[in-house]
Write a structure and sequence with these properties.
The structure is a homodimer.
Chain A lengths: L7 H20 L3 H17 L1 H17 L4 H7 L3 H16 L7 E6 L5 E8 L2 E6 L5 H11 L3 E5 L5 H17 L7 E3 L6 H6 L8 E5 L2 H10 L12 E5 L5 H13 L8 E7 L3 H14 L3 E4 L1 H6 L4 E2 L13 E7 L2 H11 L4 E5 L3 H10 L4 E6 L16 E3 L7 E3 L5 E12 L3
Parallel strand pairs in A: 3-4, 3-6, 4-5, 7-8, 7-12, 8-11, 9-10, 9-11, 12-13
Antiparallel strand pairs in A: 1-2, 2-16, 14-15
Helix pairs in contact in A: 2-5, 2-7, 3-7, 5-6, 10-11
Chain lengths: ~425, ~425
């Protein structure tokens, strides 16, 4: 039976078994081999830049013919700068410390047993992504460096681009003497392949969905495999009465407007009633001056006629756009309660000069990232010093917040004895 | 509408919402309050010992009338010693360090941001268990101490016992001023309640199944919530040619026969061909002398006529009984390959005096716990110094191996700045 005549189910199961075998070998691979694979892959991406661009041009032409919109088309497009960024990204991951084999804890027991917790790879990671083909290189590199085998599944509109990128990665992997199945791309655009992948809990250990809400919800619903979930980022910046007014203005403007489409962008500003007159006008001037539409409650609107009325739905909306909702609160407790009721446990910030209020906010707000006197746009693995991230987890299981190399590992216990038996 | 007229679905959803509210309060509860709840609950369990015993007697009588078997009946029965053990267990958990609020890591960024990773509770934990009613106290205590709200669901045959234990826990929780919903028991024996619980991913963060393979497989299949899985313990003790013969004998005997029904028990012994004549006779004498039935391959049988033939299925069987399979291998590589092919990634050991072989085995065997010169029966949170465990995870996501208080936490990032904005 040739590959062509295998059923999709068989094709996927075989892919899983090959990934599992590759993962077993990768778990033992020396750091130097993994780094060599990454730097050779970077070299190959640069060498194959014309071929990758041509494959991408064919994908873009198809998408254009289908009437695909501007933003999606932009995400799909790989220009020379983006191809170089992929290569540089591979080199950056090669330069990061190897997360495998780290000794996470070690202690001795009264009976003399020496117990050590050591980081090991998770195993096989399924990456399901949408239009950005560069995710193949970025996510594949993080998996490889953390000793995990990867199964890549890009959007059907980017399949030629993903295949071209995958070919370059494979050259690097082979050059380093690592198993070629370390990074596999699902060889079909059949949508049913994703459904099968999500049931392969005998060979796949974790699923990473990278894309819009629809994709993540489908994956969460169907998967029998643990998922690094990334849901909404309904983030708040809370201007406490003890805030420095200039800092409140600068931090809030950055949190909302630096980039409005990222998950760390602030969507709602809360302001202490006591700071309405002193702090908010400057903040509103800055936001509106930068082109942001402001929707506020009655107290905020009374302050500035440019503010439109906010509806109840505004407090629960992730705009991902140059829109912000603004609400007056009585103080810290009401701010915390509003965030608990309307936030998404992603990233929230307080601006304050009051150290006690800062610590109270850090403790009381149950979000992956809670900041004091800093922009919510710092919600990013690179900004945290992790070098790169495969995403930000809004779940609480295994990893929360930026998912970098360390978060792509599990652990095992090494127990060293001298003949101990249990009484 | 009274509770009686609520549909099961409504009842369960309300239970989940109450648990979520309790979890928010518990996350902020001081260590002293949690400890007080546990010690007061211990006091109440002792004070209510007669009532708990009476409730249990009614459960036991029902089960007996239904013709329930000896082992299950034993697990169901709470005698005075087991009731006292529950009380002492609550006090032991009170004495453990609080895992919430631990600073797990802290670093500064070049821009001056101070980033701290701090342990927080997971949230709401659903505990689904079978016949042992004492799990209600043991698991409830671990959840409470780690700041998590618990929803308990015992087997229908133990519902009176669980209700009585839950009443005592509630008295302790109330005495400490903590939310009464911190530990709830599902108020119905309707089996459909479990199915509903497993879909409540808006209010429940983690599911812990405690029971047989059937329960764990059902939970894994149906759950939309992350599960602490505990599958088979097909564990190996490998006698390397460099082993001390007396140590091999003592460690193997203990690993197999100390208790045969625990998940850390050894099920297969692998022996280097070079050690067959020197090491195996003493091991076989010890095992057979202790009442263990031995099944071996041809080489092992040639050595001792008391050894029965092993079938292919034996290498994949978790006996949980006084039966062991024994196989000769060429050396470390074949032992590791056998464990990879037939083991369950739970707990495996090597006996050897060769330090290089020991480290090679520790690195190459992909199990939650890998031991050198020690009994596999040490696979236990208490033996690891964790104080108590809610189970042993054979999954790789979030926690692997014994799940104690620390493994019942997630984390968040506290980021302290001085007005930083992101370029």
């Amino acid at each position: 039976m040739t590959a062509d005549t295998l059923s999709l189910e068989d094709t996927m199961r075989r892919l899983g078994l090959r990934a599992r075998a590759a993962a077993d070998a990768l778990a033992q691979a020396p750091t130097e081999a993994k780094n060599r694979a990454l730097t050779e892959a970077a070299r190959e991406i640069r060498a194959q830049a014309a071929e990758i661009a041509a494959a991408n041009a064919a994908d873009v032409a198809d998408a254009t013919a289908k009437g695909v919109s501007g933003a999606l088309l932009d995400r799909l497009t790989l220009d020379a700068a983006r191809i170089e960024a992929m290569a540089a990204g591979l080199e950056a991951v090669a330069a990061l410390p190897d997360p495998v084999g780290r000794s996470l804890a070690r202690w001795s027991r009264p009976n003399g047993l020496d117990i050590e917790r050591v980081a090991v790879p998770l195993g096989v990671i399924g990456i399901i992504f949408e239009s950005r083909p560069n995710v193949a290189a970025d996510a594949g590199a993080l998996c490889l460096k953390s000793g995990n085998a990867a199964i890549l599944r890009g959007g059907s509109e980017s399949h030629r681009s993903v295949r071209a990128i995958h070919r370059a990665l494979a050259v690097g992997i082979k050059a380093a003497g690592l198993p070629e199945d370390a990074i596999q791309a699902i060889p079909t655009t059949d949508r049913a392949a994703v459904g099968i992948l999500l049931t392969m809990d005998d060979t796949v250990d974790v699923i990473v969905p990278r894309g819009g809400k629809g994709l993540i919800e489908r994956v969460s619903r169907e998967s029998r495999i643990p998922v690094f979930k990334h849901l909404d980022g309904i983030n708040h910046t809370y201007i406490h009465s003890g805030a420095d007014a200039a800092m409140a203005r600068a931090v809030t403007l950055n949190a909302k407007m630096r980039r409005t489409g990222v998950c760390g962008a602030t969507e709602t500003v809360l302001v202490d009633r006591a700071a309405l007159g002193s702090h908010l006008p400057g903040v509103l001037d800055a936001l509106i001056g930068a082109g942001c539409a402001v929707r506020g409650d009655a107290e905020v609107r009374a302050l500035d006629p440019r503010v439109a009325p906010a509806s109840d739905a505004d407090w629960d909306t992730e705009y991902l756009d140059a829109i912000v909702s603004v609400k007056a609160v009585a103080g810290l407790d009401e701010a915390v309660a509003h965030i608990a009721a309307h936030g998404s446990h992603h990233t929230d910030a307080i601006v304050t000069g009051d150290a006690a209020a800062a610590e109270a906010f850090l403790n009381a707000v149950d979000s992956a990232i809670v900041l004091v006197n800093a922009s919510t746009q710092f919600a990013d693995g690179g900004e945290f010093g992790m070098g790169a991230e495969i995403g930000i987890s809004t779940g609480r299981f295994h990893a929360r917040g930026p998912v970098g190399l360390e978060q792509l590992t599990s652990y095992k216990y090494k127990v060293r004895g001298t003949g101990q038996t249990r009484p």
